[in-house]
Amino acid sequence: MARLALLFQIAVRNLFASKMNLIIGFIMLAGTALVIVGGALFDSLNDSMSRSVIGSVAGHLQIYSSQSKDELSLFGDFGGQESDLEPITDFPAVKAQLEELPHVRMVVPMGMGTAMVTSGNIIDLTLADLRGKLRQQAEGKGSPTLAAEVDSMKSHVREMARLIRQDMIAARVISTQSAQQEQGLETIDRVLSDAFWADFDRAPLEGMEFLENKLAQLLTDGDWLVLRYTGTDLDAFKKAFDRMELVEGTMPPRGQRGLLIPKFYYEELFKVKVARRLDLLKEAVEVNQKLLAEDPDLQRRVKELPVLTRDIMMQLDPLKQRTLVTQLQQALGSEEKDAEKLLKQLLTVNDQNLMERHRLFYELVAPKVELYRLRVGDTVSLQSASGGSGYMSSTNVKLWGTFQFQGLEKSPLAGVTSLIDLVSFQDLYGYLTPEKRAEIQALQKETGAQQVAREDAEAALFGGGAALVAEGESANIDEAAELGTQERAAPRTTYTEEDISGSVVLNAAVMLDDSRFLADSQRSLQGLIEEKGLQLKVMNWQQAAGFLGQLTLVAKMVLYVAVFIIFVVAIVIINNAMMMATMQRVREIGTLRAIGSRKGFILSMILVETAVLGAAFGALGALLGAGIMRWLGQSGIPASNEQLYFFFSGPRLFPALGVGNVIAGLTVVLVVSAISTLYPAYLATRVSPVNAMQAAEE
Amino acid sequence: MAPIVAIENVVKEYHLGKIVVPALRGVTLNVEQGEFISIAGPSGSGKTTLLNLIGCVDTATSGQVSVAGQNTMGLNDRALTDLRLNTLGFIFQSFNLVGVLSVFQNVEFPLLLQRKLNKTERAKRVNEVLEQVGLATHTKHRPSELSGGQRQRVAIARALVTQPKIVLADEPTANLDSVTGQQIIDLMRDLNARQGTTFIFSTHDAKVMSHANAVIRIADGKILDRVTPQEAARAAAGIH
Which of chain A's residues have a Cβ under 8 Å away from the Cβ of B89? Predict the structure, then answer.
């Protein structure tokens, strides 16, 4: 005991006896602080990301059919491909059983898919507007104002035609002319001729037909956009994911088809580009404190801004143009009379005028145009090739509003999927209800269609010496007779609770009342599946997040590898420093050996010294680490880009320090000290007592 | 009575790469219990090597070394260490105290290694020895707070605290001024006279030699003769 006390005393007093110890101590201090801060940051990040994933789509656990070809991956795989899942058999029964389990708060049915949706075409919007006004006139609601508006819109259409013509002429320079283009030019020339408009005034509806069918298709600004959607019980979803909030519009009423688009996605894809760009520039300067002049990426966007005026010009009829010219002349102090040139002036921004220009844009330009190519209240046509039937399915569904998740407003990942009602989802999925299946079978029977295997298809079609089946003959098809006999039911826009509960469900989110029970609940759910022989698989949010979940694993690996490398380096440095320290103490060690210390005593002395050194500087490092974490916890780490919003689960990450992090930090530093001191300690035991004498002779 | 140190025909060679450097070339020497012996000779003559062999901190290449009746040639490191701890005391030219320990702790150190006495007994013994060397009032000082002479007294106390049979001192006064050196030798002489502890010390200072019972003169790794201090002084004067 007394010897150990003495060893400790020697160790403590030796702490500051040598500079070498201070160097070693500093490495230990920095190492501990690093492990603690790194570990705590990572844990906090993992924690906040779990909140993001759990709170935005995954729930705590996910179930899906064990018959599925793929594993469930909520965010798609690396290639963005949806996982191929089989529908869950008898979901209502499954749901009821799951909700019996302890800690299960809710089970939300889901099904994911990808649809194509058109972003809308400006000329379509204008023509629809014009048609509406013409109809008003036809209904006898004409007035001088309405007449002026119609005239203005007519000039607007002419202006659009002129702009399209410009584009087509420009396109001719870089590509060879096609018959189609020639036809297009003819159409435009007709629209630009006075004769066309004279005819238009006589028979407006015929004129409209020409414009809608021939002119509108020439404007190719309507993109096909990919929309990821989650079909779900929308009310249940809103209740389960309580961070979800509507930004615009309302929730689709119960029993009605409806689409909700994430606000971020809506802004990004459906907002007029120039407005979106302006917003982003403002945000970069205002929120992220960047300078336009210094950031090359922002510079590029600034340069592109005036080029994007066409989107706006397309939407301005002469009336609006005139007003805008007057307003902009005044606001910009310019005498320019051309609206487009004035717009370009307005959109020439720099650090000094950005805020002012942004305000002017929204005050003067925005009210005159449609800022979004798809408006809340519009009905969109979703087309999907994914799903059970393998056929292309489509459905029309009304956009009821936009939504976001609190704290994840800026995250594209949280806004990765739109929400639609389950019945529309079922349509898109192409689920064959028993009735549909019967209908197809009846059709097959009627037409004599046969199932032919792929490898036999060629032989069946072209092979064999079979006699000619039929001779082709030309005949006029009487469309009315053909189609008139088949009454097609109009797609239903409403549905019942039975439709919801009976709908096809591919996966379901299981919400718990507390995240702490996640592992327990996963086990009990697995138990239930095995006990009842349910054809289900269960995953936690991390597994269900697919590559995103793996991302945290990768990040963890990177952290561990980094810590490992740092500590290998630390071990080498500490080891070297310890060796030097031991060499400096050869006479002391020799003396101790000479006066009767055994090798074991020397070994313990060095080990205890390192342990004390490690403990002392490790504790200081822990204090430093805790201090840094406290500071970070209070000030927060800003999410500098949109991806980080998701990982931080908000605009700032407020990391917290756990006891586990401190213990890990201290353990690591002690282990590293122990490893790095083994060889020097061994060397110390090899010091001969003769060294005490030899040094004395020097 | 058998001699406390018996050395017979001892050869010690050092290997510097391929070169063999002879340090002792067949030395035979007996030291009786209670003697106060000086080993004298020029630098490189083999004084320290001889002390190392007697002190069991080094082993001979050939020959026999017996300390307190034990033949050291067959002993392993642990046995040699225990022999040093229990039978021998060391006084070094540069004092070799543990800088981070107090005077008391430095002296107590060998007792802690021995594990024979309890705390009270240790304190009593340490205080006695410090009293003998005249440092009873300096127990809490660190070595760095003491003069050279005081430090060497601490070293003497440390060497004596285990009540060894033999105390070895390698040039104990070399780092001290002549007055202090004289005091240290007087102290050693006094302890030798009162307690009968055998002292073997190396020196090339004639004044220091003059206190010895006998002077072993050594040169080129061989013992020249065993003479009285007076003879040694005369010879030294003759040489110079």
Answer: 595
> How far apart (Å, rounded) are the C-alpha atoms in residues A493 and A48?
39
pTM of the model: 0.67
Burial of A382 (0-12, 13-18, 19+ CB in 10 A): buried
Mutate to test the interface with A, among B52, B167, B170 (most CBs of A within 10 A): B52
Model-level ipTM above the cut of 0.95:
no
Q: Are B199 and B169 in contact (CB under 8 A)?
A: yes
Q: Which tops the pLDDT comparison, A176 or A540?
A: A540
What residues of chain B, 203 to 232, have a C-beta less than 8 Å from chain A? none
CB contact under 8 A, B82 and A10: no
pLDDT at A698: 37
Q: Residue type for A537, please?
A: K
Range A196-204, long-range pairs (CB < 8 A, 24+ positions): A197/A154, A197/A158, A200/A154, A204/A134, A204/A137, A204/A138
- Of B77, B94, B112, Cβ closest to residue A2: B112
Helix/strand/coil percentages in chain B, nearest 5: 40, 25, 30
The pLDDT score that the predictor gives to residue A652 is: 83
Residue ranges with strand state E in A212-325: 224-232, 244-249, 259-262
Alpha carbons B168 and B49: distance in angstroms, whole number: 12
The CA distance from A510 to A344, in Å, is 52
Q: Is B94 on the interface with A (CB under 8 A)?
A: yes
Q: Token match 């509806």: residue?
A: A205
Average pLDDT over residues B209-235: 88
Cβ contacts (< 8 Å) between B86 and chain A: which residues?
Answer: 596
Rounded to an integer, what distance in angstroms lies between the CA atom of residue A150 and that of residue A152? 5
CB of B102 within 8 Å of any CB in chain A?
Answer: no
The phi, psi pair for B6, rounded to 5°, reads -125, 115
User: In sequence order, what are the residues at sequence separation of 6 or more whose Cβ sits closer than 8 angstroms to the Cβ of residue A540?
Assistant: A60, A61, A62, A518, A519, A522
Interface of A with B in 564-593 (CB under 8 A): 587-588, 591-593
pLDDT, residue A47, reads: 83
Computed over every residue of chain A, the mean pLDDT equals 82
What value, to the nearest 5°, has the Cα angle with vertex A684 and ends A682 and A688? 120
Q: Across the interface, which of B93, B98, B109 has its CB nearest the CB of A696? A: B93
Report pLDDT for B173.
85
Q: Which residues of A592-623 are buried (b: 16+ CB within 10 A; e: fewer)?
A: bbbbbbbbebbbbbbbbbbbbbbbbbbbbbbe
**Angular region, A36: left φ>0, alpha ψ -120 to 50, beta rest:** alpha
User: Which pLDDT value is given to residue B240?
Assistant: 47
SS3 A281: helix
Chain position carrying tokens 């009293």: B131
How many Å lie between the alpha carbon of B228 and the closest alpha carbon of chain A?
26
Q: How far is A26 from chain B (nearest CA, A)?
A: 21
